[in-house]
Design goal:
8-stranded mixed beta sheet, disordered N terminus, binds adenosine-5'-monophosphate-propyl ester, alpha/beta
């Protein structure tokens, strides 16, 4: 029998963990925590909104702001009014000036194992060279530059170069398809693209440029392109007439000095497209002052980041998590941020733990889907490595079940690291609901209380606050600095998507405006919030948000398909998986070939992440008497749940038929 350090038999330890439903932060953590005074909740409440100066104080301002919040025109809230600053100067120059020139800013590891370290000094030099190059290509302040890059250092470099010259970036996840790239570039009228020849995935050199080129053919205007040569001789590529080689540009501008443009606090720092309920992705607009202050503040208070730390958020920069917690938050605080190009199971399933050990990682932040995969692979992989450098663990993106939480706590954190389960969204810019690791008791499965200064409230359909023990809808009743300001060029949709549900939209009283994130939630007697998941037609696959409408329209776009309904069904590792129900046109056969065409159609329109787990051919979809598709029923069928009463359907007979086909035909 294996014994633990304090001589407790491992089986008993397992049983104890199984039963335990709350955990206190370890004393050793509390003693050194950035935030350990529980008075912070009250201090923020009493001094709202001026409490947010604490976040703004983490930044260096070129010109001081006046009012902390201008709420005179809700829901178009403005933060740190008239303040001026530059995000790249905050992430680079000030650290170089303050003696951190030789501290590692980015430690990168490629999938084949090569490493690159950029000190703050190196990073500033390269950002300035690339900023100069972008300027010469014609990029001006407020031009949107699209970055279609995988996890290579040139991605954060390009982001910071854009920020330096005041050009908002729009990062498109490298796993998205050519069509998805074109849609986003057209929507933002983006005339500049930075991409690369390819990258490594499980030992294979993927051709990325081919996808970028195909995407560009769908863009309705001229585009200047910069191509990073990631793969060298492994994959040859040709630059067209309007394409430039990244290395050549940087060499040409070596040693350039580019003054950071002083941006208004409310000027756009970036645009990030995310999925919504309609087929059209939403361009979420984030600003320079409020967003950066919020990313820095939450990195400081929740992730406990300190300049001397080596910090690793194992997300992809193509999503908001990577923007806020690989790039902007950690670099604003002057810490060392780790980036890894590849997948966690290559060449073996201990790759991440090897990286933690070799880099002495202090803080590790990932998604529940990854934790579930680690759990499935077994504890032998983390056990191969010394993970004792870890001080804090975090999760984000989807609900984490208590079993996965405890596995993470025990096998990765060695029962010595607090875990922060952080609820937030692309739209919120940063974390909103989570325990503070130096203060709060942790309850596996529950994200925790709202952060200080965040008015997250669970309400019923009428918008009335629910009582503890009940479930309802999550709302945020007061603005916060990291909030999205609008949907790019679409104020109307901004209001209808996020505010219409619970606000009096005719009112100019800010108290009448309530933000609705479209999540269900439960509240307990200690004020802890457990997130139940989306209440709209968005599904969460491996922590990635996908709109069912986008997938449905891709399926209906396949020749021979008449109608489609897409729902999320339970999945052991991914959390949710895409289940597609398709009705074929008369005369079409439900063949494997048809199924493959449907899957390929989805991959072309969105990318492999949206790939249906199953395509179920059915002659009809279950509909209510008023003709609405019964999605809930389709979800239950996909998840293998008990089906409720189906007798009120217009076509109840179809249900048995579909159940027979799932997993069977
Ligand atoms: O449903 C919630 C879920 O992810 C959604 C936001 O997705 P996205 O904008 O892609 O951002 C993901 C990374 C911030 C939310 O509406 N979600 C996020 N974090 C959690 C979560 N669900 C439960 N627990 C969380 N910690």
């Amino acid at each position: 029998m294996t014994m633990t350090e304090d001589d407790e038999p491992a089986v008993e330890l397992e049983a104890r963990l199984e039963e335990q439903d709350s955990f206190e932060p370890p004393e050793s953590f509390v003693e050194q925590a950035n935030v350990a005074d529980e008075g912070i909740y009250e201090a923020f409440a009493e001094n709202w909104p001026d409490c947010w100066e604490r976040a703004a104080d983490l930044l260096e301002w070129d010109a001081p702001y006046g009012e902390v919040l201008d709420d005179s025109n809700p829901p178009f809230f403005e933060w740190f009014v008239d303040g001026k600053l530059n995000a790249s100067a905050n992430c680079l120059d000030r650290h170089v000036e303050n003696g951190a020139k030789n501290r590692a800013a980015i430690k990168w590891e490629g999938e084949p194992g090569e490493t690159r370290t950029y000190t703050y000094g190196d990073l500033l030099t390269e950002v300035e060279s690339f900023a100069a190059a972008l300027g010469e290509l014609g990029v001006e302040e407020d031009d949107v530059v699209t970055l279609y890059l995988p996890m290579i250092p040139e991605l954060p470099i390009a982001m910071l170069a854009c920020a330096r010259i005041g050009a908002p970036h729009s990062v498109v996840f490298a796993g998205f398809s050519a069509d998805a790239l074109a849609t986003r570039m057209n929507s933002a009228d983006s005339e500049y693209l930075v991409t690369c020849d390819g990258y490594y995935r499980r030992g294979e050199a993927l051709n990325h440029k081919e996808k970028a080129d195909k995407g560009l053919r769908g863009v309705d205007h001229e585009v200047e392109t910069v191509v990073v040569d990631r793969l060298g001789d492994e994959l040859n590529h040709f630059l067209g007439a309007s394409a430039h080689d990244y290395d050549e540009l940087v060499d040409e501008h070596a040693g350039a000095s580019v003054e950071p443009v002083s941006r208004d606090a409310e000027d756009m720092l970036f645009l990030m497209y995310t999925s919504g309920t309609t087929g059209q992705p939403k361009g979420v607009k984030h600003t320079t002052g409020g967003y950066l202050a919020y990313a820095a503040w939450t990195s400081h208070a929740v992730l406990d980041v300190k300049p001397e730390d080596t910090y690793w958020c194992a997300a992809d920069i193509g999503w908001i998590t990577g923007h806020s917690y690989i790039v902007y938050g950690p670099l604003a605080l002057g810490t060392t941020t780790v980036m890894y190009e590849g997948t966690p199971d290559y060449p073996e399933r201990d790759r991440l733990w090897e990286l933690v050990e070799t880099n002495d990682v202090d803080i590790f932040y990932t998604a529940p889907t990854a934790i579930r995969a680690f759990m499935k692979w077994g504890e032998e992989y983390p056990q191969r490595h010394d993970l004792s450098s870890l001080r804090l663990l975090g999760t984000v993106g989807e609900p984490i079940n208590p079993r996965a939480w405890k596995w993470y706590y025990k096998h990765i954190g060695g029962e010595e690291c607090p875990i922060v389960d952080t609820w937030w969204q692309t739209e919120t810019g940063g974390m909103m609901i989570t325990t503070l690791p130096g203060i709060n008791t942790m309850k596996p499965g529950s994200a925790g209380p709202p952060l200080p200064g965040i008015d997250a409230t669970v309400v019923d359909v009428e918008g009335e606050e629910i009582v503890a023990g009940e479930a309802g809808y999550l709302t945020v009743q007061r603005p916060w600095p990291g909030m999205l300001r609008t949907l790019y060029r679409n104020d109307e949709r901004f209001i209808s998507e996020y505010w219409a549900e619970y606000s009096d939209t005719n009112s100019d009283d800010p108290d009448d405006w309530v933000y609705f994130p479209e999540d269900g939630a439960k509240l307990d007697g200690d004020g802890y919030i457990t997130i139940l998941g989306r209440v709209d037609d968005v599904i969460n696959v491996s922590g990635h948000r996908l709109g069912t409408m986008e997938i449905e329209s891709a399926i209906v776009g396949t020749e021979g398909v008449a109608e489609a309904a897409v729902v999320g069904g339970d999945h052991e590792v991914k959390g949710e998986a895409v289940y597609a129900y398709a009705i074929l046109e008369d005369g079409q056969e439900p063949t494997d070939g048809m199924r493959e065409r449907i899957v390929a159609g989805v991959e072309d329109a969105i990318g492999p992440i949206a790939r249906p787990e199953e395509v179920i051919f059915t002659p009809e979809l279950p509909k209510t008497r008023s003709g609405k598709i019964m999605r809930r029923l389709l979800e239950d069928i996909a998840s293998g749940n008990e089906l409720g009463d189906t007798s009120t359907l217009r076509n109840p007979d179809v249900v048995d038929d579909i159940v027979d086909r799932v997993g069977g035909d």
